[in-house]
Design a protein that fits this description.
Number of helices: 16
Strand content: under 5%
Helix content: over 70%
Structural class: mainly alpha
Number of strands: 4
Radius of gyration: 23 Å
Distance between the termini: 26 Å
Strand order of the largest sheet: 1-3
């Protein structure tokens, strides 16, 4: 393997190791033992879900307890604003303005982190007796808010560094590492349930079969694509006879990738984090309805995943740009006029695939609730976690393979998409 690729992989592992070390750095002024005991008894509710995505950092009340979710929430807000305001969309597309766009995302991240950290701090104070060692509650909130803000900013920087200098998408890999780090304790917890006869061996075998079936289904769908045949004029083929010319347009069944379930989870966890800090009975009732053990939470999850699947697919797949590039390169789809007709066909095919892809993501993302309700399984074995782990692993493998190919054929110039 090329030395450059090895260095990128090592850089990625180094940053992920730094992320895991940060998960063990607690916020000053808390009793970590009391907080962990509390989270052990609340592993199957909103706190358990929140703890899973942070890589068990919440149960230690680490400085990265909020994880990367504030950054993701800020990205969602900016994506929605960019879809609404053309000036922001133009800023996102232009290379020179992209830095300014990302800076706005970071500012939003700071604001969201401060709001969430204050909510979590007051929630710890009101919900876990004896967890706070600082008598002055306002001083504690100030210290914890500053600590968690610093932790989230470091985490955001780590994600950006992995994307730029390592292999794969840094933000996705951080979530991946957090979930994977939680799996051993989840397996241990499941075997404890078996030993105490809360789960039978038949149910355990059923759980394993469901997990394996879910993984195989995810791999099957993620590797699925529709290939639309493309032809080129003879003079184009002669001109590029020493270059690779793609003779088809690949359109993935799941165009949006892992983004919809991540966005939906972030959007649902944000109000939960804030609402659980309140002592108001009405707000507590709303928080209970949004609890991951409730029907409403998973109904909203199902709807949001479908929404973000369509929304993100429209961003990543631009049929008009593809048709123009194809026309400029002298290619065409047999029987279809180059230009607008080609764009209309690609849009139609992409829309049909997105429907099935969105339903697939929504069903897989709501599977955790069915498992928890029927068998009492921890969140870690749920569809959302498995979906993220498998998709990020496949995406990272593709990028490593692409880097290997590029290192072998540095002068390769591909014509097509």
């Amino acid at each position: 393997m090329n030395k450059v690729i090895v260095n990128k992989i090592l850089i990625t592992f180094a940053f992920l190791l730094a992320y895991r070390v940060l998960a063990y750095v607690p916020v000053p002024g808390v009793d970590a033992t009391v907080i962990k005991s509390f989270f052990d008894s609340n592993s199957n509710n909103a706190l358990g879900l929140f703890n899973m995505f942070s890589g068990n950092a919440v149960e230690r009340f680490s400085i990265i307890s909020l994880g990367i979710m504030p950054y993701i929430t800020a990205s969602i807000i900016m994506e929605l604003l960019a879809a609404t305001f053309p000036s922001l969309a133009k800023m996102k597309k232009e290379r020179d303005s992209m830095m300014k766009y990302m800076q706005i995302v970071r500012y939003f991240t700071v604001v969201i982190t401060i709001v969430q950290s204050i909510g979590v701090s007051f929630g710890i104070r009101s919900g876990i007796e004896g967890a706070i060692l600082i008598d002055d509650i306002y001083l504690f909130v100030l210290v914890s808010a500053i600590s968690m803000l610093a932790g989230t900013m470091i985490l955001m920087w780590i994600g950006e560094q992995i994307t730029q200098k390592g292999i794969g998408n840094g933000i996705s890999l951080i979530i991946f590492a957090g979930i994977v780090s939680s799996i051993p304790s989840a397996i241990g917890g499941t075997f404890s349930l078996v030993n105490t006869n809360e789960i039978s061996y038949i149910e355990l075998i059923g759980i394993v079969l469901i997990i394996v079936a879910t993984i195989l289904a995810i791999i099957y769908v993620e590797l699925g694509e529709r290939r639309i045949g493309v032809s080129y004029a003879r003079k184009v083929l002669m001109k590029n006879q020493n270059k690779r010319i793609m003779n088809y347009i690949p359109i993935k069944l799941n165009l949006s990738g892992v983004i919809p379930p991540i966005f939906a989870s972030a959007l649902l966890m944000f109000p939960l984090t804030v609402l659980q800090a309140s002592d108001n009975e009405i707000i507590k009732t709303i928080a209970d309805y949004l609890n991951p053990n409730g029907v409403l939470h998973h109904l909203l999850m199902f709807i949001l995943v479908i929404f973000f699947a369509y929304f993100y697919s429209s961003i990543v797949f631009n049929a008009k740009d593809i048709s123009e590039n194809l026309k400029r390169q002298g290619g065409f789809i047999p029987g279809i006029t180059p230009g607008q007709k080609t764009a209309d066909l690609l849009t139609q095919i992409a829309s049909r695939l997105t429907l099935f892809g969105a339903l697939y993501l929504a069903i897989i993302s709501t599977l955790p609730w069915l498992l928890v309700k029927s068998m009492g399984v921890p969140f870690y074995f749920g569809g959302t976690a498995v979906l993220i782990v498998v998709q990020v692993a496949l995406d990272t493998m593709r990028k490593i393979q692409a880097q290997i190919v590029m290192s072998r054929y540095q002068t390769l110039s591909a014509v097509g998409l």
